[in-house]
Amino acid sequence: MPPTRRNEDGLLARVNFPLYTLKMLTSRHIIVAGGGGAANTGVANGFEIYELSHDGERYVAEEIVRHETGTSVVMNCASYSNGHKSYLVAGQESHCQLYSVNAKVVDEKKVLNSEEKDDHKELRARNVSSKKENSEEEKAGEKKNSSSKRLKFEIKPSDSIQTDFCKDDPFQRVVRIGCSGKLMVTGGTDGHVRLWAFPSLKKLIDIAGHKKEIDDVDISPDEQTIVSLAKDGCGILWDVKSGKKIGELQWDTPENAKFLYKRCRFGVSEGRKSRLFTICNPIHRNTKLKSYIQLWDPIDVTLKRVAACNEFLSALSVSDDGKFVAIGTMSSGSVSVYIAFSLQRVLHVNSAHTMFVTGLEFLPSICEDSALSSCTETAVVSISVDNRICIHDLRYRSTIPYWLAIVFIVITLFFTLLICSFLGL
Q: What distance in Å separates the CA atoms of residue 221 and residue 127, rounded to the nearest whole number?
């Protein structure tokens, strides 16, 4: 049985607005976004960037920067960084807004020294006891010794393009950026899948792919294939270069019931071959039918493996090394982690959030930064409209030590030879 626990110590941070989207910005920085919408509710709209670290016992998040987007709520976003430049694209109603994310190293020691000088001037101006002054100076000295250089971010809006043209209520539902940083795909309420050159945002292909609004899209690691899911019940694979349909996701549903695909993500196998993961829910909620995680072969468009879930699913993520899949649920706000190739559940966090999970993102599988080193096999960050950012880690699973395995082999061979000798074989 996989380990099951409640989310008692996984809280990273709380924000003052509902969260709808989450992305890794760098190997140790996450960006979350959301908001209260255009209504004058007093709930902000925008982004927040957090820096993650590990103190030896648990993960810690520190807010780095906050950027508000006025009356436009951010419902979806994607990020790309090539080590020199970082970009962020965000769905804001019918448009896709491009942001440049400028990073700079700030020497907090110099900042603290400047603050200390100001503090000393204020202290001298006050009529306080020398004992209190010494105490303040000792604290300032401790701050100075613990300071270090840090990475700061500045978010600047750039180009904005309309990506959805629904006559009634145009709205961009999803945006993705390819691994190379040269391709972007968007989907919205008009059912079209649109491909764009990135970061120029020049439109490449417009595919009238679905009869109803799109729920999710993703780009394969080799950027040759795009998958799109929509409320018309279809999951379709498209060729990037031609925009033509490659195939459709089809399977024998339980009791011939109708299901809707909810989320899709490409991943890679150990042989670097593409794999496709989807989650789907039965159309009617008042049913005993289960929801499913599905593993597809995107080459011949066949279903390879499924795993049943007892409640409706809302979020999906695949680790960058393709080894793990994470899902989030609707009613209980739970998070689970599965082994990708077998869809065996290895971690379940019950009631990770008080409301449905809106986003999941794995931490990088390989991180050279010692600040994020830990004794966990993988870790996934989750967000929800309950304003909470949480992290859930999978501890290394216990295995038989190699020396014990050798002992077992030797004992087995010994008894095998003994039995053969006794039987005269």
A: 66
- pLDDT value of residue 286: 74
Q: What pLDDT shows up at residue 5?
A: 46
Residue with tokens 């110590």: 9
Among 70, 75, 15, CA closest to 39: 70
**SS3 state of residue 51:** strand
Return the CA Rg of the chain: 26
Contact 33, 49 (CB under 8 A): no
Quote the CA–CA distance of 349 and 235 in Å, as a whole number: 29
Cis peptide bond N-terminal to 364, omega within 30:
no
pLDDT for the residue 27: 86
- Residues whose CB falls within 8 Å of the CB of residue 233, separated by 6 or more in sequence, listed in order: 258, 259, 260, 261
Q: What is the pLDDT of residue 136?
A: 44
| Regions of the chain with pLDDT less than 50 | 1, 4-7, 111-112, 123, 125-147
The predicted structure's pLDDT at residue 414? 79
d(CA 232, CA 258): 11
Bridge partners, 76 (sequence order) = 91
SS3 (DSSP) at 42? coil
* pLDDT value for 297: 96
Q: How many CB atoms lie within 10 A of CB 137?
A: 14
Beta-bridge partners for 238 = 226, 245
List the structure tokens of 58: 């648990």
- Say if strands 202-207 and 214-219 run parallel, antiparallel, or are unpaired: unpaired
- Characterize the bridge pairing of strands 345-350 and 4-6: parallel
Tell me whether residue 113 is exposed, middle or buried, using C-beta atoms within 10 angstroms of its C-beta: 0 to 12, 13 to 18, 19 or more.
middle
CB 99 within 8 A of CB 106: no
pLDDT value of position 83: 75
Q: 120 in helix, strand or coil?
A: helix
Query: Can you give the pLDDT at residue 148?
Result: 61
